[in-house]
Amino acid sequence: MSLTLYFHPLSSFCWKALIALYDAGVPFEPKVVDLGDPAERAAFQAVWPLAKFPVIRDEERGRTTPESTIIIDYLAQYYPTAAGLIPADPDLARQVRLLDRLIDNYIHLPLQQVVNERLRPEGRHDPFGADQARGALRQGYDLVAPMIAGPWATGETFTLADCAALPALHYADYAVSLAGWPELAAYLERLRARPSVARVLQEAQPFFKYFPLASDR
Ligand SMILES: N[C@@H](CCC(=O)N[C@@H](CS)C(=O)NCC(=O)O)C(=O)O
User: What is the pLDDT of residues 115-131, one digit of tens each?
Assistant: First the structure.
C-alpha cells in the first residue's frame, strides 16, 4: 500500500486527516504512534522531526507530508475520490480554506490551550490563561457560527472545512458548551452522523477516557 498515516486515534488533528481518508475511501496503512514511548517517538521523529501528527508518507511518490490541512490538499490533488474536498471553483476553494484556517486558529488552538492548562503539573496551573482561552473559544464560535452555510460548512459539498470542523467542535464543546450556539450544535450533529466521522469517533472511543476534559460532563 502506498500511503502510511502516522497518527493516534485520540488526536484531534489526526481526526481531520482520518475523516478525509475515510470519506474519500482512500486506502492507507494506519501506523498508531505512542508519543509516550521513547522508541516510538524517536522513530517518528526520523519521519518528521517535529513529532507532531498527523503525517502521511507516500512511498510510491517518495513524499512525506505533515500538517492536517496539507495532507487533505495532497489527497485532493492525487486521489480522484478526494478531489471534492477542495472545490474546483477557486472562489469556493478560497472560502473552504478560509473556514479551515478560522476553525483551526480560533477554535481548535484555543481548545488545545484549555487542554494544555489541565495537563500542567500541580502548582503550575494558570487559571487566568485557561479563562483567556475559553474567551477566545467563545469569540471563535461567534465568528464561525454565522459562516456555516449548511448542510456543510460551505454548502452542499463536504469539504476540508468540514474535516476541520468536526474535531474542533467535538472537543471544544467540553471546554465551552455549544448550547449557546444552536446553529453550531446542529452542524456538529450533522457532522457526527456522517459515516466517515462516525467511524473516527467509534475508533477513538476506547481512548476517550484519556481526554483530559472527558470527566467535565
Ligand atoms: N498544525 C498541525 C497540528 C498538529 C498537532 O498539534 N498535533 C498534536 C496532536 S492533536 C500533536 O502531535 N501533539 C503532540 C505533541 O505536541 O507532542 C496540524 O494541523 O496537523
Answer: 999 999 999 999 999 99
